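Q: Trace token order:
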Amino acid sequence: MSKKRIKLGLALGAGAARGLIHIGVLKVLHKHGIKPHYIAGTSMGSVIGAAYAAGNSPEDLEKIATTTDWKKIIDFTIPKSGILKGDLVEKRINEIVKGKEFKDLDIKFGAVSYNLTKRERVVFTEGNLARALRASISIPGVFTPPIINGDRYIDGVVTDPTPFDVVQDMGADVVIAVDLYNKEKRVKAPKVKKGSFFEDLRQEFVVVELLNIKNYLFPERWPRLIRKILYWLFDKILYPAKVLRILSGKQVPDITQIMNSSIEILSNSYANERMKHADIDFKIAPKIKDIDWADFDQAEKFIKIGERAMKKEIPRLKKKLKLV
């Protein structure tokens, strides 16, 4: 009589740039020949989990994280429900998951999002993968909520920051939950540092706002030659003399940073409370210092943090999975 195979589930939590820690966790598991049977992710955790389930190695993911020019996936819109449309992000995600749908993945996978229309948690497990991931990462105030089958969706962090329950429901016998919320960590709004993602975001916001102003003043229905002359006048005369003075100190709308800070605080408390009472075999809680959720340029540091946190649990994990 054959032994029952122990099924491993991996829950990858939300955390924006901190989600790059998941790559380090996967690197260590991969190195020891341990592959999960189920993966569930929220927000950035869903993107990393889906990319791995789509056939990317942890080394592939590390290369993507350290070489991506984040400025190139910024697409501003008029700030109504978000400052970013998210189309470029979705396109990039689709490239990372190799254009696959859920049914094409190597590992059973679920992406957590929140249906804003019906006010309920949703776990995507079928259909368009890139679209589901776009829904899962739609941070309120940053991304315009995508519409899927008539319903609007936002980041799953508001309902399930670390989706250990999802992999349990999938059938996992042993669960690894990577929790990126540290209760000792004091949550603060991100500081805008020179060269940081938020500084890049601010600069791009100014550039796009100028373009919107030009398009508003000189609509496309006007003759091309006239528009070209007016554009030249705008850039050479009005831009440096007046517009630059007005916009030079402009930042991404305050509401965006306020909403993110608020969601961060609420998610931090909610995640810690859920994890405290969760019946989970392995709670991976990396110690994160001096780098924050907006520091996408610190990918290598985040990945190293993930590696260190997972290495500590490998001996016990192998014993639990009966690999030793």
User: Anything to note?
Assistant: The CA atoms of residues 13 and 307 lie 16 Å apart. The longest strand covers residues 108-115. DSSP finds eleven helices and ten strands in the chain. Residues 224-247 form the longest helix (24 residues).
